[in-house]
Structure formats: structure tokens, C-alpha cells
Amino acid sequence: MANELIQMGVKKENVLVYHLASNPEFFTPKEKREGNTIGFCSAYYERKNPELICDLVLNMPDYNFLLVGKDWDKYDKFDKMLNSPNFRYVDNAEYEDYPSLYKQMDVFCSPSFLEGGPVPLLEAMLSNLVPVASDTGFCPDIIRHGDNGFLFDPYNDSLETVMDSIRKAFLIKQNVRNDVIDFSWAKYGEKLHQVYLSL
To answer: 3-state class of 99 per DSSP?
Structure first.
């Protein structure tokens, strides 16, 4: 969007990009990723790419899946997912429970076609989960493909490509929290304050 504004004639020096933030004190890091659980955190919408989530669950039986969200009973294939022994759904969880839910995951997947964030990506990475995410929202600004996570094209990449990225994500050993620690609300407020002072 910043590039589009500049192309429309807005002066580059007048365009600032500040991503949304999260709370590093609330989302503390998982010390070790020794499990085989792939997590999602999303309410049900078509733009969240439910078909891909279902396909991953059904085609990766050797991995466990944890979906934290709401309204997934509206998805017409949800029964297939619920009947899979490798799938668990936490419906309408309290936000105070999110840190402990993230700690039950090892790799975090965000497969959406369209995102304004996604804020759960920050929460997951602050929890030291390796991300595999679609190339939308601020994901490409935060994820360095093949280094601290993996990106994919939700429109053109195959199921096999996404599964391969997930398998590779389990091999990443670094603490990915370090890459998002600066995306705190405190630092976000400081940035806005500096803009205000410069006016």
C-alpha cells in the first residue's frame, strides 16, 4: 500500500509504514520446539483459506494440528477435520489462554488469501514458533524465506509446496522471537510519539 501511495504521487518522505504490534511480556517464548504440532489461530472466513487447512490436516497424518478460533462449525468440511485423529480444535478461547495454546504448537501456519496483519503471526513468533505463511499482509516484511520461516503464494503454490515448507520449518533451530521483539506496543507508541513531535 505504501508503494501504491507513492506511485499515485504521494511524496515518499511522507509515507511511513508501522506494522501492528503485540505484547512480548504476555507472549513469552517456548524454550524448545520438540513436538510435531502445527498450529493455526483464526476465526472462520473464506479468505482464511479453509480448504488448505483441511487439506493439510488430511494429508499430513504424521503431524498434529491445533486450530484456535471460532465459527469453524460453519465450514462444510469441518466434520472431516474433527474426525481426523491428528486434529484438535479450541473454540472461542479466552485471550488470556492464548500464550499457553501457542506453547502447544511448534510451527505456526497462516494460509490466508488476504490479511491486514496477521497479528497472530506476531504472537506466534514472540512465542518462538516458526512461521509458514502466505505472502500477504505484513508476512513478507517479517519472514525471511528459508531463514526464520517460509512464505508461499496461496493462489499458485501447490499443497505439496506448502507441506514441504512446513516440514522444513521443523528443522529451523533459531529463536525466531528475536526477529519480532521490536514489534511491541511500547515501541509502536514511541514511533507515533516521534511523528507527533516532528509535526
So the answer is: helix
Sign of the dihedral through C-alpha 137, 142, 144, 147: negative
Distance (Å, rounded) from C-alpha 123 to C-alpha 22? 6
Q: Is 170 exposed, middle or buried (0-12, 13-18, 19+ CB in 10 A)?
A: middle
**pLDDT tens-digit map of 82-131:** 999 999 999 999 999 999 999 999 999 999 999 988 999 999 999 999 99
Count of Cβ atoms closer than 10 Å to residue 187 Cβ:
14
Q: Which three cell numbers stand for residue 34?
A: 520438540
On whether the CB atoms of residues 132 and 157 are closer than 8 A, the answer is: no
